[in-house]
Design brief:
2 copies of one chain form a homodimer. Chain A is an alpha/beta fold and 368 residues long. Chain A has helices at 8-12, 22-29, 48-57, 70-80, 92-104, 119-127, 144-154, 174-180, 239-245, 256-266, 269-292, 313-325, 349-367; strands at residues 35-36, 87-90, 110-114, 131-135, 158-162, 189-193, 215-220, 233-236, 296-297, 304-308, 328-329, 341-345. Chain A folds into 2 domains: 21-45 and 270-367, Aspartate Aminotransferase, domain 1 (Alpha-Beta Complex), CATH 3.90.1150.10; 48-267, Aspartate Aminotransferase, domain 2, CATH 3.40.640. In chain A, helix 3 packs antiparallel against helix 10 (256-266) and helix 5 (92-104) packs parallel to helix 6 (119-127). At the A-B interface, helix 1, helix 2, helix 3, helix 5 and helix 9 of A face helix 1, helix 2, helix 3, helix 5 and helix 9 of B.
Chain lengths: 368, 368
């Protein structure tokens, strides 16, 4: 009997972490990155009003944040046309994913996701002892029909679907998801990860009532709103489910300045529109760079572009390694067959110039 | 079979939350508080250097924070004379408490604490299905010997002890805890909550080796460093235990500006010294106000003063209600016999002037 005695579940968990951050990579490499295009951060940054709001809020940083995030919820509820009772705010989508899994998944419970989808979701499922059933994508798209059918087959309590998808950048029309919902089995909750939805074409977000008990949607200020370092995400769902988060969440876990910043960011939809235009231009540039190198950029409804390197995973891993050696922080899909691709976050002109310069050499090295 | 299917544990949990925040109270009351003396926040605020560091970090808020909190850990390890492997940084002590309980406590596992000690710890224990054994204080002090004996009796995996204590403000000399440690049973981890330790007399922190597998200590930037709204806490423990947090924690859960602010706050020990002097002066003023009203202020090693109202819990609750009605945010101990007291956080002259003016009326109303 040693100090301390971990639970059996904890003892069964691997020591590995879902993502190695760029700062950790820089320290391992012993060199900084020249461009940061690997974590789908939004280099165009938050609204100046959000920066001002966060700066102004620092004077009050001696106070805990509002445990109910009242002002932010009010503003979101007006913006989304839902009630505040449909909203829970958390420490980014990652934090909310952990809470949601904890609400539903006990050891042995079945969960369905796509093979190669968001690793941090899988991390939380494993962390609570859930059994993951992973389905292949349908080409470069997640497959809602197959996911929901699998959920029925394995009696899943939770099924994960990202729309748009990360790491492939693909998307479904909202109506496609709405139709597929008919196949979602009783007792299975659809977790719809909409982290990138602001970047997607009109109609990508399905018209699901916020009170629909079959679905919880998650969104964030980390991507389109450019505040990844602030850690503010939110979930939209039926009031009973939303209330359940209060049984377990870290009630005073949110940074007070970040709460103020998210509110101001939401209120500056002009800035958001500018960001979307910049991201769209950046996507075109990345696709252009890919094409000039004889590669195919996949269509993207996100702030990144996934590029098919035209061969197998080993080839793409060599391309990636060379890009990293050339001081570019980039990542690639983990699972076959998508590991034939690399994934480039949208960047400024200067960031993309570095990528433009580095890609030919990376391909040459990978082919050598 | 409804949507969604919660775990049995979640269904068993109450909807109540450990603390109702002051903003929530203000909305319920329909009036703002004139002084905020209820949450042991540090109204003297963070070092100006910390404010500058957070302001400067906002430019980079589009990036996730460093998942390893490398710079902050390096600085803390130098400051505390421990290795970075002895440190984990989290979303305040509250966040770390949740992670620690999850590491150790499965449904039915025994945990020992004092009756009336930190409710958020109890919240997490219940949230993971642990069985709480609550011991009475010894007078106004937690009782390490009794806690550890109880831990042996019930085969506890975890025992909670705060030093200094909240809500009583009392403390033990470090050597007292060190001696009691001999009675800590095998297989039981001591969670030593040192949230207030910077305010305490020299010698209050026991000289326990960071590698000692029997103990984990938790500290925070929320109290003496004046950054409650930033959400940065840390734990000091044996490397194996510290590494275990990486199996479950929200790796990218910390606000990037808060990480920079905590680093700068730590590096400004002159500001900390000024804060401690201000807090000490404020404690004396609160004790003086109590004495002038015929009440006894308990000795405090924290940034609050617990005042014995000289009667029972109902009386103190009436005093508290009147203070709240007079627009003072204050709280009181939850459990008898300590609910004979009210608890006043240290404040500025203006805050204490309001308390000085309100207390006689509150006592008169309570006696009426």
């Amino acid at each position: 009997m040693s100090h301390p005695r971990y639970t059996d579940l904890i003892l069964s968990l691997p020591a590995s972490v879902p993502f190695v951050g760029p700062e950790v990579q820089e320290r391992t490499r012993g060199a900084p990155f020249a461009a940061r295009l690997g974590a789908n951060e939004n280099v165009f940054g938050p609204s100046p009003h959000a920066l001002t709001a966060m700066r102004d809020a620092l004077e009050g940083i001696w106070q805990y944040g509002d445990s109910a995030s009242f002002d932010l919820k009010e503003a979101l509820s007006a913006h989304l046309d839902v009630t505040p009772e449909n909203l829970v705010i958390g420490e980014g989508i990652d934090g909310l994913l952990g809470y949601l899994v904890r609400l539903l998944i006990a050891p042995g419970d079945a969960v369905v996701t796509s093979d190669g989808a968001y690793p941090t979701f899988n991390y939380h499922v494993s962390g609570f002892g859930g059994v993951l059933h992973k389905l292949p994508y349908n080409g470069d798209h997640e497959d809602p029909d197959a996911l929901f059918a699998k959920a029925a087959e394995v009696d899943a309590k939770l099924v994960y679907l990202a729309n748009p998808d990360n790491p492939m950048g693909s998307w479904h029309e909202g109506d496609t998801i709405l139709r597929a919902l008919d196949m979602l089995p009783e007792g299975c909750l659809l977790l719809l990860d909409e982290a990138y939805v602001e970047f997607a074409p009109e109609g990508t977000a399905p018209r699901i009532a916020a009170d629909d008990p079959r679905v919880i949607r998650m969104r964030t200020f980390s991507k389109a709103y450019g505040m990844a370092g602030a850690r503010i995400g939110y979930a939209i769902g039926a009031p009973d489910l939303i209330r359940s988060f209060d049984k377990i969440r870290n009630h005073f876990g949110l940074n007070r300045a970040a709460q103020a910043g998210a509110l101001a960011a939401l209120q500056d939809q002009d800035w958001l529109a500018q960001t979307l235009a910049r991201v769209d231009a950046s996507r075109r540039q990345i696709a252009d760079i890919a094409a000039k190198n004889g590669l195919i950029a996949l269509p993207s409804a996100t702030n990144f572009v996934t590029i098919d390197c035209g061969a197998d995973g080993d080839f793409a891993r060599r391309v990636l390694a060379s890009l990293v050696n050339q001081d570019l922080f980039v990542r690639m899909p983990f699972a076959a067959p998508h590991d034939r691709c690399i994934r480039i976050s949208c960047g400024r002109e200067a960031d993309l110039a570095l990528f433009r310069a580095a890609l030919p050499k990376a391909l040459a090295e990978a082919r050598a």
